[in-house]
Amino acid sequence: MNTMTIAIDGPAAAGKSTVAKKVAEKLSIIYVDTGAMYRALTWKAIQSNINLEDEQALTTLLEKTDLELVQSDHGQRVILDDTDVSDDIRTHEVTNQVSIVAKHKSVREEMVKRQQDLVKKQGVVMDGRDIGTHVLPDAEVKIFMVASVAERAERRHKENLEKGYDSDLEQLKEEIRRRDEIDSNRETAPLVKAEDAIEVDTTSLNIEQVVSKIIEIIEEKG
Ligand code: C5P
């Protein structure tokens, strides 16, 4: 059994989840999208009319919440209290508020515990913001994916148009900048490159090129 642990961190819309999923497939290990967990809690908090600045209320809500990441033929599904919320957590409303929920210390402590429990004794590719620094500090390979704001916004814009959604490129740039700023400046586990992480700049690379680059790094380490 492959028990290798791989941490992939980086700013919003850098393509981490698409790449992490493919790397996990190639290595036949599981993929865990930690952003989906923060998104699911944000979705539930909005549904429950909870003030997203209220750390205690969010923590209590999380304690009462069952969160599962399930692999299916349609990719990874996010199951919250027996309901599939995989699509609900990708809405604009959730995307633009998730960083507020994710800045709270006690919310993060509970999430990190759950993420660490998910991977006990098995190989994993996990993506997020604090994986190499806090969730899997002993990961064998740590990648920090970066790309310019312009490039990340362009990719997201293209994706939105392909899905038939309305999309405004300038607004996307602003939202990505704002999310990065909150994630990078929060007090608890801010978005930062782990000292032993390898930076991969994806600005002029396509998905397959990024995947190959990461597989090369993993093979060098292994
Ligand atoms: O990766 P994704 O863009 O889905 O993450 C959504 C948000 O969740 C991030 O902008 C960040 O605020 C939060 N997050 C986090 N720590 C993680 C994963 C995500 O704070 N490990």
Automatic annotation (TrEMBL):
Its EC number is 2.7.4.25. The keyword Cell wall biogenesis/degradation does not apply. One of its GO terms (cellular component) is cytosol. It is found in: Cytoplasm. GO terms for molecular function: ATP binding; dCMP kinase activity. It catalyses: CMP + ATP = CDP + ADP; dCMP + ATP = dCDP + ADP. The keyword Oxidoreductase does not apply. GO terms for biological process: nucleobase-containing small molecule interconversion; pyrimidine nucleotide metabolic process. ATP binds at G10, P11, A12, A13, A14, G15, K16, S17, T18. Keywords: ATP-binding, Cytoplasm, Kinase, Nucleotide-binding, Transferase. Its main location: cytoplasm. InterPro entries: Cytidylate_kin (IPR003136), Cytidylate_kinase_dom (IPR011994), P-loop_NTPase (IPR027417). SUPFAM superfamilies: P-loop containing nucleoside triphosphate hydrolases. Residues 6-219 form the Cytidylate kinase domain. Gene3D superfamilies: P-loop containing nucleotide triphosphate hydrolases. HAMAP family: Cytidyl_kinase_type1. Belongs to the cytidylate kinase family. Type 1 subfamily. This is Cytidylate kinase. The gene is cmk.
